[in-house]
Design a protein that fits this description.
Blueprint lengths: L1 E9 L5 E5 L2 E5 L7 E9 L3 E11 L25 H20 L21 E9 L2 E7 L6 E3 L8 H13 L11 E6 L5 E6 L6 H14 L2 E5 L7 E4 L4 E5 L4 E5 L9 H15 L6 E5 L7 H5 L4 E6 L2 H13 L5 E5 L15 E4 L7 H10 L3 E6 L2 H13 L2 E9 L9 E8 L1
Parallel strand pairs: 3-5, 10-11, 15-16, 15-18, 16-17, 18-19
Antiparallel strand pairs: 1-2, 1-4, 2-3, 4-5, 6-7, 6-9, 7-8, 9-10, 11-12, 13-14, 19-21, 20-21
Helix pairs in contact: 1-8, 7-8
Length: about 425
């Protein structure tokens, strides 16, 4: 049974919001101003989830999405919205979450930093693979499922990776191992180099390697094979490292397969610039960088600090961070492979500034030791506003003031929101 619904807002997660008898109804792939025919697919006590049956009166905001699989592919939620409106809604959603969940006043939220490009910005991508009765498919999961949507070209992915996708879509179906490849990871660095990691679940990878090695060498791509967790990764051909460039003048930061790098390189550089500026370093401060990876923030900060201590739980990234410090001539950095919350024994003396860039689940186990450490300034880089709001609450109750928080759009066409928040002792 369907009913008419007016969409008047967007929610974190990307769905449009309408109201039926006072209850919020979340409907994917809609836009504020749409009048739709809707049916309920999941009815909860406080809200409902709906499905758009038909757009009866389209919003003036709507545009035609360029991707032929938009709406079926689960990667993008907002290609049907102009980019300026995407940014405006991200800023509004981010502010609302901090207000409602973190008790933060809207005046402390600064305007969003938009991406330099809304298309072809992804420098890192994971393509899902399936061998089906109709042939080999390679693309992305359909929204809310593990069904693979076949994708020949992704408009938000950088063109060199789309070219690599085209090649692997041609190469893999001709191998005897096509049904034993669940995923192919591709990365592009600032020098234009492409690195590919093929996930393999079969027993004998040699036939696959024999096919792919000469072709990747000819195409100038590095190739790695992963047969389980990251620790199983092995090099087939090409260079191990990719390089991202951050800071002014630029520092070259290498990261290996399995290591983390932001997918939007130009926005990452903007974020690093903002972190360095907001740290307010004079050359006398000690800085703690938690979840430091291969040194994305640590190394630019080291040029302004007395000493930087970087902590990261993935040991290969720490080894790469040490190599990066040496390669860039920075001797005032100590890197440690350890869980972020265990940083206290690693410190030597006081720390004035802390930077933390946790994964999506946030940093709840770090907050208590941070309050005990009590640095003058905390710079929190977040990729999830809800976990950010949760982590801000004990800091704000523990003697810190939020100077400001600013969203950054690293993921155009999607609902995801990166941000930087600056806290200082009262």
């Amino acid at each position: 049974m369907s009913f008419e619904l007016e969409i008047d807002a967007l929610a974190f997660g990307g769905s449009g919001i309408g109201r039926l008898d006072g209850k919020a109804v979340f409907v994917p792939l809609t836009a504020p101003g749409d009048r739709i025919s809707c049916r309920i697919v999941r009815d909860k006590k406080r809200y409902a989830e709906g499905e758009c049956v038909e757009v009866l009166r389209p919003s003036r905001l709507r545009r035609n999405p360029p991707c032929p699989v938009f709406g079926r592919c689960g990667g993008c939620q907002w290609q049907h919205l102009p980019y300026a409106d995407q940014c405006a809604w991200k800023e509004r959603i981010f502010t609302d979450i901090l207000e409602r969940q973190g008790g933060v006043g809207s005046a402390t939220v600064l305007p969003i930093v938009p991406s330099a490009s809304e298309w072809a910005y992804r420098s890192r991508v994971q393509f899902k693979c399936r061998q089906t009765t109709e042939g080999f498919v390679m693309g992305f999961y359909r929204r809310a499922s593990h069904f693979v949507i076949d994708v020949a070209h992704c408009p938000i992915t950088a063109e060199p990776l789309n070219e690599a996708l085209r090649l692997f879509r041609r190469w893999l179906p001709g191998t005897a191992c096509a049904g034993e490849i669940p995923q192919v990871d591709m990365d592009l660095d600032d020098d234009g180099k492409v690195r590919v990691v093929v996930h393999f679940i079969g027993s004998d990878p040699r036939p696959l390697i024999d096919v792919l090695r000469p072709r990747c060498l000819d195409a100038g791509m590095s190739l790695f094979l992963q047969r389980g967790r990251k620790e199983t990764m092995s090099r087939v051909c090409g260079e191990e490292d990719l390089v991202l460039k951050v800071g002014d003048p630029p520092l070259a930061i290498a990261y290996g397969p399995g290591g983390f790098a932001q997918i939007n390189r130009s926005q990452n550089r903007a974020l690093v610039r903002e972190v360095v500026q907001c740290a307010g370093l004079t050359g006398t401060e000690n800085v703690l960088d938690l979840f430091c990876g291969a040194g994305n923030f640590s190394l630019p900060l080291a040029r302004e600090a007395r000493r930087v201590i970087g902590v990261e739980g993935y040991p290969p990234s720490i080894e790469k961070a040490k190599w990066n410090a040496k390669a860039n001539g920075l001797a005032n950095v100590d890197f440690h492979a350890a869980s972020a919350e265990t940083f206290r024994p690693l410190l030597r003396g006081e720390v004035e500034v802390v930077v933390l860039d946790p994964p999506r689940e946030g940093a709840p186990t770090v907050i208590k030791p941070l309050l005990e450490l009590r640095p003058v300034r905390i710079l929190y880089v977040s990729c999830d506003p809800s976990t950010l709001a949760r982590d801000l609450l004990p800091l704000l109750h523990g003697g810190y003031a939020l100077r400001w928080s600013r969203p950054f759009d690293l993921f155009p066409q999607t609902h995801h929101i990166e941000s930087l928040s600056v806290l200082e002792t009262r």
